[in-house]
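Before going further, learn to read the protein records used in this course. The integers have meaning only within a learned vocabulary of local backbone shapes. The record below shows the convention in full.
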Amino acid sequence: MSNIASVFKDEVARQVRRQLRGETESLKKASYRYRSDIAALKRRIDALEKQVSHLEKSAKANVPPAATVDPDTKLRFKPQAKLRFKAQGIRAQRTRLDLSAPEMGALIGVSAQTIYNWETGKTRPRPEQMPAIAAVRKMGKREAKARLDQPQAA
């Protein structure tokens, strides 16, 4: 009797394995398809992200900076233009205009100590101060003296 029971048990197990194999085979195929689709989508996303970053870089390079007028100095400047700074340049500019550090600071809108710190190289001007420095670079002695005399008369 035990022989029939073991044969029956083996047959049932075989049939169950056969049925499960058929079901899991379709799941394996679907899983493989999904994984390959996901990998293809990831590759496509990477390519699109590279394309977007390239287009952003080229768009930034192709946009001309808008020139604006500083209401105080009436000079045109490009706020997006990269302005250079040299400590020796501030001192040379100050001596060229025959100005003291407090006078130079009044023209730029900073303190005399800030001018000294810039000239010695201890500190650097902030980006928002660079247009004022560029405006002073374009001034002559007469214009600088006139600007310094204006606030005292007002």
